[in-house]
Amino acid sequence: MFGRERIEYKTPDQVLRMRAAGLVVADALAAVRSAVEPGLTTADLDRVAADVIAEAGATPSFLGYHGYPATLCVSVNDEVVHGIPGARTLEAGDVVSIDCGAIVDGWHGDSAITVVLDADGGADPLDLELAATTEDAMWAGIAALALGTRLGDVGEAVEDVVDTALETGRNGGQRYGIVEEYVGHGIGTAMHQPPDVLNYRTRDRGARLRPGLCVAVEPMLVRGSRFTQVLEDDWTVVTDDGARASHWEHTVAIGEHGIWVLTSQDGGAGRLADHGVIVAPVG
Hints:
Elements: H1 12-35, H2 42-55, E1 59-60, E2 72-76, E3 79-81, E4 95-104, E5 107-116, H3 125-147, H4 152-168, E6 177-178, E7 184-186, E8 193-197, E9 214-217, E10 220-222, E11 228-230, E12 237-239, E13 245-247, E14 250-255, E15 258-261, H5 269-272
Antiparallel strand pairs: 1-4, 2-4, 3-12, 4-5, 6-10, 7-8, 7-9, 9-14, 10-13, 11-12, 14-15
């Protein structure tokens, strides 16, 4: 469409290369998820991911990106995204969002998870619901890539999950804020490409969904106001009101016969079945 930035559509062979990068990311996040516990520092988690990526012969997407100094983004509690790993020691009850990217043969994968440290029952049940709802919203947005016609269907699906959480009381009766300043994106030969993938409804329906489109779907929900600010390190994004945040993300490809979650070890088959979507790997 005139006025839209050019989208890089991928061939099946290119999607397979992105799958290789996506599996490295999946393995790195699985290792971090297994390792994370109270008493570790955020830098400890960064080393776990860096080792997995190095052993795979891949390159971190984030390290050196516009000067970013680490392999992971590790964002804790009111930190929404882009938290820099360092000396911070994790505690029981912390909400830890972990974002990872890797490059294989010039192609990127990008994914994020949120872990609530529940040692000895130390987690707030509303934090657990926040993380679960954000993950549900991500999978609903991914399913919309298979069930919808326009990219704007992703944002509608995410917002529908947020609405349902309020209607059912899952969120303790307070509507989650949907962060609007940071959104999903196209991905391929660069980590961030057109098009933007919004996590909320807009009048602009967005690009038509068609084979070869590869995007990162990444909702960020907060237990309060959606408004954010960036700390003095010029990276870490925090909520204005100190509310806790959750971030989930997967890289997804649309193929001729369906979608494929490139950063999920099972291609997304398990969670997408709940939405009536069948995963269609390329090749």
